[in-house]
């Protein structure tokens, strides 16, 4: 508790908070570093330099999901009353509002931050702690989604290399440590009464996994699930950072390498014995016979 902490001896909570802020600063520095070649031109970046390790972690997560998370989520979806599922989803969505509110103000979005503050107060008080989404029932309070990774991106910090985290899934060098900062804005982070916090954490994972069940069949039909998940995550993060309107410099010509990677992974490779003729440019008379 705050009141039991001595000024001369900061508790472990302050140490973890300081470590999280320091990690965010290091991430911002490393993500913003640019490398150049000997002639001074920018070095072509490898967006997934840790692909070999990432694929190993991806297989581990997929195995865990296949034999534990997915079956549990399926049972929860099929046998839990819909009204209970809706209430659980609303409850955890409401708990995420403090993170969104803080990052709205850090990005200078004061109007949106005020709206999300109103949503949180309304749902927490009149909505039985957020179980009932009162704010969506006729009020002019739109729902937003912000986090520390989006805030860093808003202020110009690039995403950096793609990462796959054990148990947590896709991330980037920018977003992975940002999750640590977001953890301190979660109300249950400050609630340490017995096992309730761990039960709520497990239930939140289960609720989130249920939301992704409709995508399982799509993922199973993809040529390379790893590439598909990577591309979907990076495109989604780009969309969120720029509120659905990324600048032209971030579109396919420059940074949208993930769409090209997916296209290349799905294109058939020609046999070595097949002769590949160069395309004929009809506008160039020198190529005509």
Characterization of the model:
The protein is an all-alpha fold. It has a domain of 118 residues. Helices cover 54% and strands 3% of the residues. The chain has 11 helices and 2 strands, in the order ααααααββααααα. The N and C termini lie far apart (85 Å). The N terminus and C terminus are likely disordered.
Key terms:
single chain, 289 residues, mainly alpha, two-stranded antiparallel sheet, 11 helices, 2 strands, 54% helix
What is the strand and helix layout of this fold?
Blueprint lengths: L11 H21 L18 H29 L2 H14 L1 H10 L3 H16 L22 H7 L7 E4 L3 E4 L2 H9 L12 H17 L3 H5 L4 H17 L15 H10 L23
Helix pairs in contact: 1-7, 2-8, 3-8, 4-5, 6-7, 10-11
The biggest beta sheet is recorded as: 2 strands, antiparallel
Helix content: 40-55%
Low-confidence stretches: 1-15, 17-22, 26-35, 252-289
In angstroms, what is the radius of gyration? 23 Å
DSSP E strands, number = 2
Q: Report the total helices.
A: 11
- The run of helices and strands is HHHHHHEEHHHHH
Q: How would you state the average pLDDT, rounded?
A: 79
The best one-word shape is globular
What structural class should be given to the helix and strand makeup? mainly alpha
Main-sheet strand order equals 1-2
What is the percentage of strand-forming residues? Answer: under 5%
For the termini, the CA-CA separation is 85 Å
Quick description:
It contains 11 helices and 2 strands.
């Amino acid at each position: 508790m705050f009141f039991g902490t001595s000024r001369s001896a900061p508790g472990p909570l302050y140490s973890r908070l300081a470590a999280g802020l320091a990690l965010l600063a290091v991430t911002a520095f490393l993500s913003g570093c640019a490398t150049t070649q000997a002639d001074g031109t920018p070095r072509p970046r490898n967006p997934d330099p840790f692909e070999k390790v990432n694929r190993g972690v991806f297989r581990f997560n997929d195995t865990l999901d296949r034999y534990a998370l997915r079956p549990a989520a399926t049972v929860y979806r099929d046998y839990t009353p819909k009204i209970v599922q809706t209430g659980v989803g609303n409850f955890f969505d409401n708990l995420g509002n403090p993170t969104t509110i803080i990052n709205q103000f850090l990005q200078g979005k004061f109007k949106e931050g005020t709206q999300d503050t109103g949503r949180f107060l309304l749902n927490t008080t009149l909505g039985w702690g957020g179980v009932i989404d009162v704010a969506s029932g006729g009020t002019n309070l739109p729902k937003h989604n912000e986090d520390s990774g989006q805030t860093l991106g808003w202020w110009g910090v690039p995403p950096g290399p793609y990462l796959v985290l054990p148990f947590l899934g896709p991330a980037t060098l920018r977003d992975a440590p940002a999750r640590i900062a977001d953890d301190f804005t979660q109300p249950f982070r400050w609630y340490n009464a017995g096992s309730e916090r761990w039960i709520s954490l497990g239930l939140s994972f289960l609720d989130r996994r249920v939301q992704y069940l409709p995508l399982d069949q799509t993922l199973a039909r993809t040529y390379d699930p790893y590439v598909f998940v990577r591309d979907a995550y990076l495109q989604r993060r780009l969309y969120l950072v720029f509120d659905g309107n990324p600048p032209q410099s971030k579109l396919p010509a420059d940074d949208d390498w993930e769409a090209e990677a997916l296209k290349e992974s799905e294109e058939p490779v020609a046999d070595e014995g097949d002769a590949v003729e160069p395309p004929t440019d009809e506008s160039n008379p020198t190529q005509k016979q």
